[in-house]
Automatic annotation (TrEMBL):
One Gene Ontology term of the molecular function aspect: ATP binding
Organism: Miscanthus lutarioriparius
The UniProt record lists the keyword Cell cycle: no
Domain of life of the native organism: Eukaryota
Keyword tags: ATP-binding, Nucleotide-binding
GO CC terms in record: cytosol
Residue ranges annotated for the CBM20 domain, each copy included: 44-151
Classification via Gene3D superfamilies: Immunoglobulins, P-loop containing nucleotide triphosphate hydrolases, Phosphoglycerate mutase-like
Pfam families named among the record's database cross-references: 6PF2K (PF01591), His_Phos_1 (PF00300)
Keyword Iron-sulfur belongs to the record: no
Binding site for substrate: 585-592, 637
One GO-annotated biological process of the protein: fructose metabolic process
Record protein name field: CBM20 domain-containing protein
SUPFAM superfamilies in UniProt: P-loop containing nucleoside triphosphate hydrolases, Phosphoglycerate mutase-like, Starch-binding domain-like
Length: 772
């Protein structure tokens, strides 16, 4: 569409530049005539027209009422409400009527009314005087249309938008072609939140283009480097910082790359330890003096110190859950004590980025203090698996979390091939060696917390009260300890875990005889059982037979606070039942074709073909999974993608809706760059924290997706999630344990299915590409 005479969508009044554009079009033919005026008149008759758009928006309209227009020529040509022209739904809450008039058209008068599209009553005419349209634009202050429902008891308010473009005949022809090719009315309104559709009677007429090969492996494509890590779960734990030695006997590239600790500081610490290994001290710091925090006596966590002099505290609005609230004049102003290096007013998005940073600093790592989750339990009870899952979950929520596996320390310090006698309770050398590596791991965890870490997962058997009291003593003044005990009484599950341990653990990597390794591990287990003492001290969580799911118990003692509460809620919904989770974007939509952000458009022809192929894939892949469910967002492009799938419940989640792009909804990135350059640059600098004006950031999306993650963990049957790019990036980051900073850049291609396999071996990924 031409834009030489266009007014912005919020504009009300005469079309800017119409006369100048008209004169330009007629200037070449104005030779020897009546001057510029005659040339302009010839230009109008030469075909230039005004393309006028009227839009109405209301997100709360209910029932079957549809906005209509009636009035004089050339809009309708009648004031008979029964012949009013229905406006077309453009978005979920937006209706539009567009028409073409000459630029010098006579004043048009009309009104809006509400009525069912295919019925005559009820008919509700808008309040107020008749609307007047001159030069393509509405006259006066007419941004709102009011309708009285049920007499005067209820008033329904619509926002009114008006836009006019001066276009040539060629542009009109192009617009008509686009309309004929791409316009599709909504097909999904009225579908309940949960529905099971039946097999169509004409299922065979879909055509061969929608069919798939019998062997789904034909569509498997390589997973990217961001795929979930595989292998022995304990190997995913942090590399022991205290085991780094100059001389390159051990290395710790991962730890150094994170900037937590340098070799020189570790070497100095090792030298200090060599002077007195047996005297273990716990470092204590007075945090309240340095950071303005006080310790809560009831919870043992740190909270912002209250100002006693009447000074207002700092309040940071992260916008989560209220993206549509208008921005106040002081939205970017912060309390004293925080400076961002410039007196210049920030653009709205940059203010959101700064607010999120301050919120993380004040309410993130300091909110619950430093927390140590200390695992307790006999070998082969799922401690490490639980530690890995909990670590992944807390990292995804934005908490600095690290997994410390004492077995990894033991193997580096004393070797991986220790026999069962090493774990006997009457072997003082073995007991001293095991306590030594436990102390080293605990010291490393405390050092890491001092450097900014928030939650440490301490993974070991910790099977005696003496060991646990040692850890509690070391934690005094440094972190709060919660014991997490895993108990399993099912002999079949224990036997399965033992066999997996023999197959995967580095302790038996050099053991060629599987049965000999199995016998050695069972003897080690007996040694632990002789001295095992269940947790009864301090704050603790007991997971009893939770792996089975049925008849499992979760016992909690002295647990309070925000983060511990989330941990308990996560654990009560976790289990080891193997099941696949299939993630896929909706089929290609019209906004995908046009390169526009957000919206609620329908599928393109390519997208409709993918919907049929996806249904074929689901039928083959989940042929014997009768309890599977299909999850979609509430936007029609995902619902339409799921519509050909038959035989499974379909559930619509508002939490799965695409990231809210606010005032940028429906724009291309080029348009954002041109019209909102500051917003464009702010997003470019920090896509994770950037919040669209009146919209959301990726961090906001992650917050609203937490209930989805909990429900995915709770499900015991396959789930197919049909959603959107930003949402699936956040979900995939959880399963693949990717850092939050990588979420906005994760590749999430169209027409591709990502299968996440959940089970005792952790998380495995497989990708199917059904279409290019």
């Amino acid at each position: 569409m031409g834009t030489s005479g266009s007014k912005s969508i919020d504009g009300v009044g005469a079309v800017s530049g119409v006369g100048a554009a008209a004169a330009g079009l007629g200037g070449a033919g104005g030779e020897g005539g009546e001057g510029g005026e005659g040339g302009a008149a010839e230009a109008w008759h030469g075909g230039a027209q005004l393309y006028v758009s009227l839009k109405m928006e209301n997100a709360e309209i209910s029932g079957d009422l549809v906005p209509h227009v009636y009035g004089s020529e050339p809009i309708i040509g009648t004031w008979d409400p029964s012949r009013a022209l229905a406006m077309e739904r453009e978005l979920a809450s937006m209706w539009e009527l567009s028409f073409v008039v000459p630029p010098d058209h006579e004043t048009l008068d009309f009104k809006f009314l509400l009525k069912p599209k295919d019925a005559e009553t009820p008919c509700i005419i808008e309040e107020g005087p008749t609307r007047l349209l001159t030069g393509g634009m509405l006259e006066g202050d007419v941004r709102v249309a009011l309708f009285k429902l049920n007499g005067d008891d209820e008033v329904l308010e619509f926002r009114v938008f008006n836009k006019a473009d001066l276009v040539s005949p060629l542009e009109l022809a192009a617009s008509w072609r686009v309309y004929k090719e791409n316009f599709q009315p909504s097909k999904v309104r009225g579908i309940p939140d949960i529905s099971i559709n039946v097999a169509p009677t004409n299922a065979t007429e879909e055509g061969s283009a929608a069919t798939l090969e019998l062997d789904l492996e034909h569509y498997v494509v390589p997973s990217p480097p961001t795929a979930p890590p595989n292998g022995y779960a304990a190997n995913l734990a942090a590399t022991p910082a205290s085991m780094i030695q100059t001389g390159a006997l051990w290395t710790n590239d991962v730890l150094l790359s994170d900037g937590i600790q340098s070799p020189s500081s570790v070497s100095a610490k090792l030298e200090d330890r060599s002077n007195d290994k047996k005297n273990i001290e716990a470092w204590a710091t007075d945090s309240s003096k340095n950071s303005g925090l006080i310790e809560s006596k009831s919870v043992g966590t740190f909270t912002p110190l209250q100002k006693l002099d009447g000074q207002k505290g700092l309040f940071v609005d992260r916008g989560v859950g209220s993206p549509m609230l208008p921005k106040s004049a002081s939205a970017c102003s912060l309390a004293s004590g925080f400076s961002f290096g410039s007196a210049k007013t920030m653009p709205e998005a940059a203010g959101a980025v700064a607010a999120a940073a301050v919120a993380d600093r004040l309410h993130g790592s300091k909110e619950d203090g430093k927390l140590a989750i200390v695992l307790v339990g006999l070998p082969a009870r799922g401690k490490t698996f639980t530690a890995v899952k909990l670590t992944r979950y807390l990292r995804w929520l934005g908490h600095e979390t690290r997994h410390f596996n004492v077995g990894k320390y033991r193997r580096l310090k004393h070797g991986a091939n220790q026999p069962a006698d090493f774990f006997r309770d009457d072997n003082p050398e073995g007991i001293e060696a095991r306590n030594e590596v436990a102390a080293l791991a605990m010291e490393d965890m405390i050092d890491w917390m001092r450097g900014g870490g928030q939650v440490g997962i301490f993974d070991a058997t910790n099977s005696t009260r003496k060991r646990r009291y040692m850890l509690m003593k070391m934690a005094e003044g440094n972190c709060k300890i919660i014991f997490l005990e895993t108990i399993c009484t099912d002999p079949n599950i224990i036997e399965r875990n033992i066999r997996l341990k023999i197959q995967q653990s580095p302790d038996y990597a050099d053991q060629p005889d599987y049965e000999a390794g199995l016998e050695d591990f069972k003897e080690r287990l007996i040694n632990y059982e002789k001295v095992y003492e269940p947790v009864g001290e301090g704050s603790y969580i007991k997971m009893i037979d939770m792996v089975k799911g049925q008849d499992g118990q979760l016992q909690v003692n002295n647990i309070s606070g925000y983060l511990p509460g989330r941990i308990v809620f996560f654990l009560v919904n976790s289990h080891l039942t193997p099941r696949p989770i299939l993630l896929t974007r909706h089929g290609e939509s019209l906004h995908n074709v046009r390169g526009r952000v957000g919206g609620d458009t329908v599928l393109s022809e390519t997208g409709e073909l993918y919907a049929k192929k996806l249904a074929n894939f689901i039928e083959k892949r989940l042929k014997y999974e009768k309890t599977a469910t299909i999850w979609t967002s509430t936007l029609q492009r995902t619902i339409l993608t799921a519509s050909p799938i038959v035989g499974f419940p379909k559930i619509q989640w508002r939490a799965l809706d695409e990231i809210n792009s606010g005032v940028c909804d429906g724009m291309t990135y080029e348009e954002i760059k041109k019209n909102m350059p500051e917003e464009f640059e702010s997003r470019k600098k920090d896509k994770l924290r950037y919040r669209y004006p009146r919209g959301e950031s990726y961090l906001d999306v992650i917050q609203r997706l937490e209930p989805v993650i909990i429900e995915l963990e709770r499900q015991r049957a396959p789930v197919v999630v049909i959603s959107h790019q930003a949402v699936l990036r956040a979900l995939y980051a959880y399963f693949a344990d990717r850092p939050l900073r990588e979420v906005p850049e994760i590749e999430m291609p169209l027409h591709t299915i990502i299968e996440i396999q959940m089970g005792v071996l952790g998380v495995e990924e497989k990708r199917y590409k059904l279409m290019d």
